[in-house]
Specification:
Blueprint lengths: L5 H7 L6 E4 L2 E4 L2 E2 H8 L3 E5 H18 L4 E6 L6 H7 L5 E5 L1 H9 L7 E4 L5 H10 L2 E4 L2 H10 L8 E5 L26 H13 L4 E5 L12 H15 L6 E3 L18 H19 L5 E4 L3 H4 L3 E13 L2 E6 L8 H5 L6 E2 L9 E6 L8 E8 L7 E4 L20 E6 L2 E6 L4 H5 L7
Parallel strand pairs: 4-19, 5-6, 5-12, 6-7, 7-8, 8-9, 9-10, 10-11, 11-12, 14-16
Antiparallel strand pairs: 1-2, 2-3, 4-13, 13-14, 13-18, 15-18, 16-17, 19-20
């Protein structure tokens, strides 16, 4: 599959594995995107089952190849969670990371068993903690106050989940924005060394089921090197608090993906997993620790590439030297540019190989100057009414969507060979009105 434009060929590498150009138009899993947009409307999100499966298998195979002990992969619910995604996760026996009682409920209704539900959260509410203690297999404890609250609540529950303590390693990974860094000394996440040891002592004194250690350093990074000193610090803590026999160790995740053709090739999952596995094995051997059950949280690198957003151009403006293509999607379904200045690319759905003749800024319909999806992107001459396909839209779009300006969240489709399933319908005005009681 080759297009006339080399730029377009590069961009195809950002799309799901099943992307094809058939009859001079984009298809995913054999389904023409133009037909899907015509049937379900735009903005529209589609997820490719084949790409999701390949991502999960890639991580699981790498863990089997490079790690000598038991290991698991955790799907990050915050990237995008729906009942369909929860159901899919169990076809690969993934754990599901939930933040708060609503995500816990989605996971349960999607068939995720208790033992595969892991609960995160930097400031869990009382309702969140009760849901976690009742319905989850593991709770990652963020702070001492939370641990004390768990201790007060635990008398109400016959079956307590395992507790992991989250520590802050004080090591920063390089990401595209400071807001995606989580492991530095001043981070709001986790406990410093002194707090961590105090929490471990508290667990011993109150006979709480302390079973593991967790840390996380950032999201969408490409260099695993900064993970290594954090792994060393985590294993030092494991030895100091005396983990023996079966225990769990999670050095986070957040491995990156390419969002723009300038960021290709895709970061190598195998080398990432191998580096972590090798350092955990060697670190445990040198400290006389038994090998833990190793957990990885791949985050966006499991799901981002599987998703594509489809927008329709509604207006074109030529203001000074700038060309604006205004679409029906924007910051309410993808706030990442407004939050992080995230960089994207795209292709026209029809005749995607056309020569690139101008630099275009693509923006949404909302009343914010920050409602921009991408800037200074080389594109062919566009026309009002044509469709644009934005790749790498599977993570941190829909999960952070909003009703700003009365926007209605888009429909979401699950694409498999010979099969299209609408896994989330388009939001309606009536959906919004059901929450609004008025004052009369």
């Amino acid at each position: 599959m080759r297009l006339a434009s080399e730029q377009a060929n590069k961009r195809l590498e950002l799309f799901p594995l099943s992307i094809r150009v058939e009859r001079d138009a984009l298809t995913i899993a054999g389904h023409p995107l133009a037909e899907l947009a015509g049937q379900y409307g735009t903005p529209l999100y589609v997820y490719d089952r084949g790409t999701l499966d390949a991502s999960a298998v890639g991580y699981l195979d790498a863990l089997r190849a490079y790690y000598g002990g038991s290991a698991s992969v955790t799907y990050a619910g915050k990237a995008y969670l729906s009942r369909a995604i929860a159901e899919w996760s169990q076809t690969h026996a993934l754990w599901v990371d939930c933040t708060g009682r609503a995500e816990i409920e989605i996971a349960l209704r999607g068939g995720v068993p208790r033992e595969h539900i892991l609960v995160h959260g930097v400031n869990k509410s009382l309702a969140d903690l009760k849901a976690a203690l009742e319905k989850a297999g593991t709770v990652v404890v963020d702070n001492l106050s939370e641990l004390e609250q768990i201790c007060r609540l635990c008398r109400e529950y016959n079956l307590l989940p395992s507790l992991w303590l989250r520590f802050t390693p004080g090591v920063t990974v390089h990401t595209h924005h400071v807001h995606t860094q989580t492991g530095h000394d001043e981070s709001k996440f986790g406990m410093n060394r002194a707090e961590f040891l105090q929490a471990a002592q508290f667990c011993r004194e109150h006979d709480l089921p302390l079973r593991g250690i967790h840390f996380h350093q950032g999201s969408n990074f490409r260099d695993p090197e900064p993970l290594l000193p954090a792994i060393e610090s985590g294993l030092d803590l494991a030895r100091e608090i005396g983990f023996d026999g079966e225990w769990h160790f999670c050095p986070g995740g957040g491995w990156g993906v390419a969002y723009h053709e300038d960021e290709l090739p895709q970061p190598d999952v195998k080398s990432y997993v191998q580096g972590i596995a090798q350092n955990v094995i060697e670190g445990c051997q040198s400290r006389g620790l038994s090998l833990p059950h190793l957990h990885l949280e791949p985050g966006r690198s499991l799901v981002a590439r599987a998703g594509v957003a489809i927008y329709r151009v509604g207006a074109l403006k030529h203001h000074g030297k700038k060309t604006w293509a205004l679409t029906d999607g924007g910051m309410t379904d993808n706030p990442r540019y407004a939050l992080y200045g995230a960089r994207y690319s795209c292709l026209p759905v029809e005749q995607p190989g056309r020569a690139h003749t101008e630099s275009v800024a693509i923006a949404g319909p909302y009343c914010e100057s920050g409602d921009v999806v991408m800037e200074d992107l080389s594109m062919p001459s566009l026309t009002v009414g044509e469709l644009l396909a934005i790749p790498v839209a599977g993570a941190y779009h829909l999960s952070m969507s909003s009703n700003y300006n009365g926007a209605l969240r888009p429909a979401v489709l699950w694409l498999d060979e010979g099969r299209v399933v609408q896994i989330q319908r388009r939001e309606t005005i009536e959906d919004l009105m059901q929450r609004d009681s008025g004052i009369i």
